[in-house]
Design a protein that fits this description.
It contains 4 helices and 11 strands. It is an alpha+beta fold. The strands form 3 sheets. The protein has a 4-stranded antiparallel β-sheet, with no helix packed on it. It has a 4-stranded mixed β-sheet with strand order 8-5-10-9, with helices on both faces. A 3-stranded antiparallel β-sheet has the order 7-6-11. Helix 2 crosses helix 3 and helix 3 crosses helix 4.
């Protein structure tokens, strides 16, 4: 292949290192910004990361707990999953919320979009707030057979986040962003009131 630039990096050669249905890893022989030769690996997930913060009228939310194979540890998180290429992120979010919790929502809004781990992956995350919630039955995948669900006030979820009991980065970002936007009045007024009531700040 012909040399090409990527910002201050020069790509000399590219090859596929590994691929499965969920991701691929590409390796690049490069010249670093200082001109020295180097090797760079990039993990490219097949799906976008999707997250949902469900908010009940009284300020409660829902966490799901599951064992995370990669970490060899149990994790409490907001509902999360993947959105296939070509699927609108909001459609994927609605599906994930229903699958993991059984909840459906009459109102949705975008919360924040961010890069997950920009030194090793090009994964992009899309998150939403769901409110006007109605209960239903979860329809979980086989990999989620051990999943638990817990409804709790937002202040408790936030306390778990700041104490380290919640370590999932996606969940931390969603909780902190929602609370700050509610405090700034940057969300729907009824939604902001629900979030702040969950913090005992209404």
């Amino acid at each position: 292949m012909t040399e090409r630039k990527r910002g201050p990096w020069t790509i000399l050669k590219e090859r596929l290192g590994y691929q499965n249905p969920w991701m691929r890893v590409r390796e690049f022989d490069v010249l670093r910004p200082d001109g020295a030769p180097g090797l760079y690996g990039v993990v490219e997930p097949s799906n976008a990361a999707i997250g949902v913060l469900p908010v009940f009228e009284n300020g409660d939310t829902v966490l799901v707990g599951q064992y995370r194979f990669a970490l060899d540890a149990y994790s409490w998180e907001l509902p999360e999953g993947g959105g296939a290429e070509g699927t609108p992120p909001l459609d994927a979010a609605k599906r994930e919320l229903a699958e993991e919790t059984g909840l459906s929502a009459s109102h949705w809004c975008e919360l924040i979009e961010f890069d997950v781990s920009n030194s090793i992956t090009n994964e992009r995350a899309h998150s939403f707030i769901a409110w006007g919630l109605e209960a239903g039955a979860p329809d979980r995948e086989g990999s989620e057979a051990d999943m638990q669900m817990r409804r709790l006030p937002l202040r408790e979820a936030l306390s778990m986040a700041t104490s380290g009991a919640i370590r999932d980065g996606f969940t931390l970002i969603m909780l902190m962003t929602a609370v700050e936007k509610a405090r700034l009045g940057a969300l729907d007024p009824d939604l902001s009131r629900s979030i702040l009531s969950g913090l005992d700040e209404a």
